[in-house]
């Protein structure tokens, strides 16, 4: 684990799996005609987009008065840890803060690309900014999928917890996640041809199914 430092008491660490993730993206983006520089641009893109996303979670947590958090950048993106017992609607906002920050980052990069003349004179920025826009939008949309542990799944469950019993909120969230996960896996394999996404969403869907089985056996959600 590589410790990068802290911002406002929130610590930031990088796991080895995140470096492997960057290597995977750089390798898949390599084009002999464009050279290694084009592939390596994914390193700062992934780092910035994931870090901004997780910092938004941490900022929302702090704004609600739950103190500092710990951010870990890892193989599935990033995680923000905080020991809190928040109100359900607080957790809805905290969950949505990440995807919203991704869309805001995409908007900012798009604005810079279209309004700052210097960008057109810098070959690196001409490549970097459009890719950052695309990556941020995709990352935001991906995290809005209603499949725990993604932000969309957490937001759905906590929204339901605002007016339903914990058990019922868990059941409804699970039965939204399972068909949604199967549909995303099928689309990723058959249409989008994104096998990494299919594997990742398939893993999340399988974990939700296992939690459902535990619930059936024990009578309560396995937290």
Could you characterize what this model shows?
With 223 residues, this protein is of the alpha+beta class. It folds into 2 domains: 144 residues, no CATH class; 78 residues, no CATH class. Helix content is 68%, strand content 9%. The protein has a 4-stranded mixed sheet with strand order 1-2-3-4. The model has no long low-confidence stretch (mean pLDDT 91).
**CA-based gyration radius:** 19 Å
Largest sheet: 4 strands, mixed
Question: Unreliable segments (pLDDT under 50, ≥5 consecutive)?
Answer: none
How would you classify the quaternary structure? single chain
Tally the structural domains: 2
Structural class, by secondary structure, is: alpha+beta
SSE series: EEHHHEEHHHHH
Percentage of β-strand residues: 5-15%
Structure in a nutshell:
The protein is α+β, with helices and mostly antiparallel strands and 223 residues long. The chain has helices at residues 16-29, 36-40, 42-63, 88-115, 123-143, 151-161, 166-192, 195-218, and strands at 2-7, 10-14, 70-74, 77-81.
Keywords:
four-stranded mixed sheet, 2 domains, alpha+beta, globular
Topology:
Blueprint: E1 2-7, E2 10-14, H1 16-29, H2 36-40, H3 42-63, E3 70-74, E4 77-81, H4 88-115, H5 123-143, H6 151-161, H7 166-192, H8 195-218
Parallel strand pairs: 2-3
Antiparallel strand pairs: 1-2, 3-4
